[in-house]
Amino acid sequence: MTTLSPLASAWTRSKPPLLRFLGNCLNEFSAETAGHVADYIPELSKADPAHFGISLATLDGHVYEVGDSRVPFTIQSMSKPFVFALALDLLGAGRVESAIGVEPSGDPFNSIRLNSDNHPFNPMVNAGAIACTGLIYDSKGADAFEQIRLALSRFAGRDLAVDEAVYSSESQTGDRNRAIGYLLKTNAVISDNVAGVLDVYFRQCAVLVTARDIAVMAATLANRGVNPVTGEQVLTPYAISRTLSVMTSSGMYDYAGEWIYRIGIPAKSGVGGGILAALPARLGLGSYSPKLDKHGNSVRGIKVCEALSSHYDLHMLNRSDDARNAVIADYDIGKSPSRRVRRPQEREILAAHEQEVRVIELVGTLSLSAVDYVSRRLAGQLRPQIVIFDLHRVTSTTRAGARLVAEAFEELAALNVTVVISGVRRASKEWDSLREWTAELKNVRDFYLLDTAIEWAEDQIVYRYGGSIDFHETTELAEQPLLSGMSEEELTDLASICAIRTFPSGAKIITTGAPADSLFFLRSGAVHVTLPDGVRLATLTAGMAFGEMALLEPTRSADVFADVSATAFEVPLKDFERFRKQHPRASERIMRNLAQLLADRLIVANAKVDILTST
């Protein structure tokens, strides 16, 4: 058995910083004994006051847990935001908003009071939550509770059950909620069947969850309705954003103002001892400790939220995203051309018009401020003919950002500028978001690979300035850069040991790992060179060599495929070595040319690195 060194042992025992922080919170706040377990529902009074669990879910689906994070307890009022979001999606915002307000009440959660329109103040107090459940009951009837339970389960990422004992206890002692129900019926907010609505409401409050569950549910809210663990889009971003808005203003009842002022994270508590907090685009937090303060909020849970917000400066209104960080690189094709090896005539045209193609590589979130900054940055220089926006490092696109992108593209179209998008797969959500606003634009093209986009743009510049790209053109050995400087006699001798090979489009000419026993001089057509993982290294056209690394290494290090029908001069390496011995001057010239070609490739690669590190 291998004995680990002290450092190696420490490494295996080490914990991520967030997990250590949650562990510290657990240890520190476990000593807090203030508060009382809820007893107005008799079954809740049986909770163990020592229980304390914390969980935090990230938007990439990782879940941290400490303490009693798997101890089940009833969701109670934490069900309210999820049922409100469900109602918005099931019934439409107009129907829900006509019955339930969105203003803070300033009253306790179970206040028997309506607003000046005789409607509940908001869906986070009991009156609003019962009304919300009533709207779903009116629509779904006997299936209403199952609709709610399934929605809560999708938020949690697992099937949730009901604590029948708590449900029964709540039903037997829920007279205050019955009073609220009949007040809502009197004011035509819910239908005649108050008992049926309240039965669904009591059941939804008795659904069993854990601190881990509510962390994942909160993270789903923070992730625009996408469960980060399962990847499922549970509800629409519209419903989620409106729900978070009401949680921000009213989620903590008559403590809501103090909460958002000091902690600044949308949250919801339940008298079962749970608190969930959803920081948009960041994380979801869930805690469980059954002792409550005078507002009905978990004493330890509030301390956890306060500590997390304070320690990591997470107040939602204290954001420092800088739009200027959205641009990771901004250059023209003179500074970073495509990997296609061009003929002299093409290189001359591109060198004379390199500023006609602008490439802007973006990173992070494509937000309104980021797109605005990019559009102003683009306008600050000479108008190009083609602009390439590479989005492969963009992690998300807001609707505002996508809409501003479309408006910017419209302006570019009016100025006869072609837009090329790269780095976005057509099957992705990012593509759908962009195409929602840009589908009707005629000046937009797309390629998944940035290099393909740059190559296409270069071709357009060559065509527009009188050049031609003829894959069927045939070249001879004398036109090969690798053979530059060789005499006519040397070229004739070399031609005598060449065989002309023909490759159909798509043919694999060279395979990684195969013996490097020949080299090729492309006579017509085009080929591309790729690494085994699919990364394209170069596109070669007539007059270029490939497989030339056989002069330096015994096995092939890349694959070569024919892009179109191609012909090439193939020279067996053993015959080429004899030729070099017979013509030492030519041998020296070939190796010098090879060194120059490799140096040119390194210069291009370094230029790309410089661009990415200097922006």
TrEMBL record:
Enzyme Commission code(s) on record: 3.5.1.2
Domain STAS: 347-425
Cited SUPFAM superfamilies: beta-lactamase/transpeptidase-like, cAMP-binding domain-like, SpoIIaa-like
Domain of life: Bacteria
Keyword set includes Transcription regulation: no
Keywords assigned: Acetylation, Hydrolase
Entry similarity comment: Belongs to the glutaminase family.
Complex formation: Homotetramer.
Protein name per the record: Glutaminase
